[in-house]
């Protein structure tokens, strides 16, 4: 930087130094920035002028200024400019979360959608929701730097064949390409599409980092209509060679069990996902099962059986991944006694070093988790090294929190549902 000292030259390095200082310190005076970066005053001035013109930073009055005279101006990262967009196109719901350049979620919304709708239909719905909310909040979408979309899949089912990658994967790739086109055409930004459950794992990590917890190694498991999950290791989401790392529902718990669509046999999903638990309990639906979960022996046995099988699979995963946090979500996991039983079995059968200091926690139940995780996957103005700081979100309505299906809406700035 010494080279810049005399001439007030604006370079990529001076831009990065000032953005880093603003990320670290928050709103700053020019004197703060000069001291923090070691750059000369003319360099700070010219670099800020460029960043102001580009809309990356904005000036605000220092309302806490207690001294005499006019309050000084503070410079901060622009909150009115969208930087990274995360989208989830789930089965039955869509959601988006948008961060500013500082990594704070500035706008997010979710709503229900028809489970039978195609991925492209859901993409268009999510885009319409985003455009409407951004217009209401007067947020500029023209400088979005990256878009990450999470969708269900891949599911490698190909009945009657175990040979190689199957047709459904090719179809999914085509559908995902069409989804990418929807967002690229509207937002003129690069779009990546991946698995939504994997992004939920990243969402769980972002949620903890936003709360000031230094979590780098986390396993996320969702026990729902199917069973899936995701692995964050060393702070990085592990997608695997085929975007299938974390598919814990397809670890076999019974080598002589029934054949599974995945090509395996006796998979965890066949004994512990919602359809299997309902069948074992002779329950009509989730509500019926929940009503009977604390007194009906058949319902209790079904839940214990599913949780025990899940616990044994999880124990194996812990031995491989050695996370500090295990997060379990999904409708089955919300049944009374399920989570406790998984933890008991896991701790009983896993190697001691894999569970020593391990936290077992319930997943966030809001509809934004997958979208926030997708945004975290796309975030990184300074080379991807900065964690998502999802501190506050401008909720424009229809954001659901609490159990899926329950709905709350609010206006104005509100805390993220996961920030307690
Ligand atoms: Zn399977």
Which features would summarize this protein structure in a list?
single chain; Nucleotidyltransferase, domain 5; disordered N terminus; alpha/beta; binds zinc ion; 2 domains; 14 strands; 40% helix; 420 residues; five-stranded mixed β-sheet; Arc Repressor Mutant, subunit A
Structure characterization notes:
There is one protein chain. Helix content is 40%, strand content 17%. The protein has two domains: 2-77, Winged helix-like DNA-binding domain superfamily/Winged helix DNA-binding domain (Arc Repressor Mutant, subunit A), CATH 1.10.10; 84-378, ATPase, nucleotide binding domain (Nucleotidyltransferase, domain 5, 2-Layer Sandwich), CATH 3.30.420.40. Helix 6 (167-187) links the parallel strand 6 and strand 7 (191-195). Mean pLDDT is 82; it is low at 1-5, 156-165 and 381-420. It is of the alpha/beta class and 420 residues long. It binds zinc ion. Residues 250, 260, 262, 264, 267, 269 line the site of zinc ion.
In short:
The chain is α/β, with parallel strands linked by helices and 420 residues long.
What's the tally of helices? 14
- Portion of residues in beta strands equals 15-25%
Helix-strand pattern, N to C?
A: HHHHEEEEEHEHEHEEEHHHHEHHEHEE
Question: Rounded to an integer, what's the Rg over CA atoms?
Answer: 24 Å
Instruction: Tell me about the largest β-sheet.
Output: 5 strands, mixed
Based on CA inertia axes, which overall geometry fits?
elongated
Distance between the termini: 42 Å
* Widest sheet, order of strands: 5-4-3-6-7
Name of the top-level CATH class of the largest domain = Alpha Beta
CATH topology annotation of the largest domain: Nucleotidyltransferase, domain 5
What's the number of domains? 2
Identify the bound ligands: zinc ion
> What is the helical fraction, as a range of percent?
40-55%
- CATH architecture level-2 label of the largest domain: 2-Layer Sandwich
Low-pLDDT stretches are: 1-5, 156-165, 381-420
Give the overall pLDDT as a whole number: 82
**CATH homologous superfamily of the largest domain - what is it?**
ATPase, nucleotide binding domain
Structural class call reads alpha/beta
Q: Total strand count, please?
A: 14
